[in-house]
Amino acid sequence: MLAKSTDDGKQAPAAAVSDGAPSHFIRNIIAEDLKREKNQGRVQTRFPPEPNGYLHIGHAKSICLNFGLAAEFGGMCNLRFDDTNPNKEDREYVESIKQDVRWLGFGWDDREYYASDYFEQLYQFALKLIKKGKAFVCDLSADEIREYRGTLTEPGKNSPFRDRSADENLDLFGRMRAGEFADGSRTLRAKIDMASPNINMRDPVMYRVLRATHHRTAARWCIYPTYDFAHGQSDSIEGVTHSLCTLEFEDHRPLYDWFLEQLEIHHPQQIEFARLNLTYTVLSKRKLLQLVQQEYVIDWDDPRMPTLAGFRRRGYTPEAIRNFCERIGVAKRNSIVDFAMLEHSLREDLNKRAPRVMAVLRPIKVVLENYPEGQIEELEAINNPEDPSQGTRKVPFARELYIEQEDFQEDPPKGFFRLSPGKEVRLRYAYIIKCVEVIKDPLTGAIKELRCTYDSETKSGSSQSKRKVKATIHWVSARHAITAEVRLYDHLFTKEDPDDVPAGSDWLANLNPKSMERLTDCRIEPCLTNAKPGERFQFERLGYFCVDSEDSSADKLVFNRTVTLRDSWAKMERAGKK
Ligand code: ATP
Ligand code: MG
User: Fold this and answer.
1) 377 is a catalytic site residue
2) Given Cys at both, which of 38, 361, 397, 535 links 33, Cβ 3.0 to 4.6 Å?
């Protein structure tokens, strides 16, 4: 479960580097290359998203790795959009990706590149391969190509068009570009080896005919390079030294190497690492798109989504995500990281920065019978015990208060130390109160109000406050509190592995019907009246909350619960250490 433990054994053990992060095999390779002055001491990486969806937390791992290593070794990291699939790509995605990478804390100066910028260059590369007899125009349909390809256990068959002359291929490829042929009717294929044990080497398609409007090149092209033909060459054009990608491209590396060797151009070193997988989470853009399109979530930035936009809206900090990405490390073997570890990084960060306030999510009224009507006290409260520089604030206290419904039990079980009839509890920063009467709705029997008395000798911080009770609860003053909406979240999926479903069912069956709960009558300390979208707070005893950036307004504040206070990861770690 622990991502750290997934080293493949070939790598040096996790030695600490300067900033305290564990080292990993890619960092070691780059350090070694620099020592040997490979690439004239240059380190050039890139983050190469396809703009066909919003970035998710898995991409954050790749972003932190590529931008982080470049920064660490005095190199550069490009942002390059691998936009070779016009039907699935969109400007909206480009903009969101740029925003998310910046939000995570990384920049690329003017090095914003697009594979589509290289379409002409890639076309020239294709011509070169044709002239060398290393590529041919094929008239097989997509289905026929699949048939001819063979299987893992059987070799493929040569295409009947494989032996066309270079001249004929040049002519046909030119006419493909000129728009003479219907979509899907012809392809350009590399001429490698239909019997290769690696299926990627069985004369893979390099170009297909496709009439589509590209988000940047519009209708200028009606042939598009495949990802496999564009990716490695784009890296080469940019002078990338270390081309970091996820493990599923290991089998593509021989093909990328073949293209680069045949073209005799700069040859980046490809290094594969394991994708991030998280429990209770799907990290596939295709599935995330489906959740959005079929309205299982509100949008890409729904606070339950594992997208960076979703995490941002939920209240996650870029620091927490970067810290998490460092903690999980980089290894060669796939693993699944516990979501609780991400939450642990988040709590660590929010604990330091988030001011504490009191908020009551499910209010029940308390009237202090012996507290003077009209009297208001301003009680001193600490904004953040972790950070004295955040100072203190005044919290109004009056005769009518709200407390949390669950902090009162009429028939308390053994061990319940909060408020119950005849029992006492301390109000945070205030007094000890005692419940003397429970007032119920005569019709429904529901509890409407608690009548209590307060002990004026027990004010927090005063010299006579020594009297002890077993529990302290939070509260707000009824006439001062602001009413707000609070949204509580749970995992989007009920199973650790959302793909774990009985035969005949699919991952959507594991969607958690209770992943969001809206509470519309919450009462919040008045100091939050002017809270701004994106601001984060700890509601004492309840968790960390963030003002929603879409739905909150000055008239009606809306908060998202970012995470609860209970740290199951820290607990597991402690248990493990024992
Ligand atoms: P998805 O499978 O979610 O659609 P993708 O790999 O197709 O992802 P790209 O836009 O091609 O998405 O990814 C950009 C970069 O991010 C690639 O280098 C890819 O390897 C990396 N990446 C994508 N998903 C993960 C992940 N879960 N963990 C680590 N890196 C990832
Ligand atoms: Mg991809």
Assistant:
1) no
2) 38
- The HSE-up count of residue 72 (CA atoms within 13 Å, CB side) is 19
The DSSP H or E segment spanning 350 is helix 339-353
Alpha carbon nearest to ligand 1 atom 23, residue: 59
Q: How far apart are CA 216 and CA 51, in angstroms?
A: 12
Structure tokens at 227: 């990802």
Kindly indicate the confidence band of residue 576, based on its pLDDT and cuts at 50, 70 and 90: confident
Of the listed ligands, the closest to the CA of 52 is: 1
Confidence at residue 573, expressed as pLDDT on a 0 to 100 scale: 78
The active-site residue out of 38, 42, 134, 275 is 275
- Could you read off the pLDDT of 485-517 as tens digits, one per residue? 999 999 999 999 999 999 999 999 999 999 999
- Ligand 1 pocket test: which of 50, 59, 94, 287 has the largest number of ligand atoms within 8 Å of its C-beta? 59
Residues making up the chain, counted from first to last: 578
CA separation for the pair 2, 489 (Å, rounded): 24
Q: What are phi and psi of 133, to 5 degrees?
A: 75, 25
Tokens representing residue 29 in the block: 């390779």
Mean pLDDT of 425-432: 97
Q: Are 57 and 321 in contact (CB under 8 A)?
A: yes
Residue 556 Cα distances to 135, 256, 285, 475, angstroms: 63, 55, 33, 20
Residue 520 phi, psi (nearest 5)? -105, -5
Contact by Cβ (8 Å): 432, 467: yes
Helix/strand/coil for 126: helix
* Residue 543 backbone zone (phi > 0: left; psi -120 to 50: alpha; other: beta): left
Q: Which ligand is nearest to the CA of 66?
A: 1
**Is 440 annotated as catalytic?**
no
Q: What is the pTM of this model?
A: 0.94
CA-to-CA distance for 476 and 216, rounded, in angstroms? Answer: 55
Q: Are 518 and 562 in contact (CB under 8 A)?
A: no
How many distinct helices (H) and strands (E) make up the chain? 13, 25
Helix%, strand%, coil% for the chain, nearest 5? 35, 25, 45
Cα–Cα dist 130/138, whole Å: 12
Distance between Cα 301 and ligand 2 center (Å): 20
- What single DSSP character describes residue 214? B
Pairing of strands 112-114, 472-473: unpaired
Looking at all shown ligands, the one closest to residue 49's CA atom is 1
Positive or negative, the CA dihedral 292, 293, 295, 298 is positive
Q: Do 507 and 500 touch, CB atoms closer than 8 A?
A: no
Provide residues with CB under 6 Å of ligand 1: 48-50, 58-59, 61-62, 245-246, 275-276, 283-285
Please report the pLDDT score of residue 384 as a whole number: 97
Query: What is the spatial distance between Cα 406 and Cα 249, in angstroms, rounded to a whole number?
Result: 52
126 contacts 229 by C-beta, under 8 angstroms: yes
Atom 4 of ligand 1, residue of closest alpha carbon = 285
Distance 249 CA to ligand 1 centre (A): 11
Q: Which secondary structure element, helix H or strand E, spans residue 77, and what is its range?
A: strand 76-81
